[in-house]
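For homework, think about our next protein:
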Amino acid sequence: MTKSIRISYIGEMEYGEAWDKQKQIVKAMDEQQQGEHLLLLQHPPTYTIGSQRHPEHLLLGPDQLRDRGISLFEIDRGGDITYHGPGQLVGYPLLWLDSSKGLDLHGYLRDLEQVIIDYLGAYGIKGSRKPEYTGVWVGDEKICAIGVKFNKCRHRKGFITSHGFAFNVKQGIQEEGFRGIIPCGIQEYGVTSLEDVTGRNFTVEQAAEGIVPYFNDLFGYSGSLNLF
């Protein structure tokens, strides 16, 4: 039996606005005023520092950030520093995890990875995991970063997920922003994109449309993509 979910691709949205939107949806879900939701979007150039708090992995000073038009946020997801920008598909699954049925929070992370791995497989690309890191890799280059928050429900048993994945779609995104940081604190490996590994051209909207069926299949939903 499949579950219903609202899936929205909303184009580009400022990071702070999207973070506030997640919090609003989480609150409404906890109060059972709203159902589950998958937000798909892009951000303008932004660095986010997760709960591991390693500001030394940011290689640019305040003046350089301002000159390059890159925003900076310290946020409440797990993980280290990463980059968001045009040409990257960001997915925020806002899902209820029912603790009465037993929870595998690490399993949720593996499921998010599997969605991307399955999507890449449709193009003959072998996506993989590295045991010591979260995310999806092609060879020794990361194509998708993952960092989440599990929000404890106040009004029912369980957690509501927020934050999610950042999937590099357009060629050259690694040149745009990743060179200003040590991505996720990992120095020994590089970063790649869907266009780099397939040799094909994609829009971020196409990637969003392509990923949705794999998300639905793995998590048991029946949502269709709504464009805004």
Remarks:
- The mean pLDDT is 91.
- The radius of gyration is 17 Å.
- The longest strand covers residues 141-152.
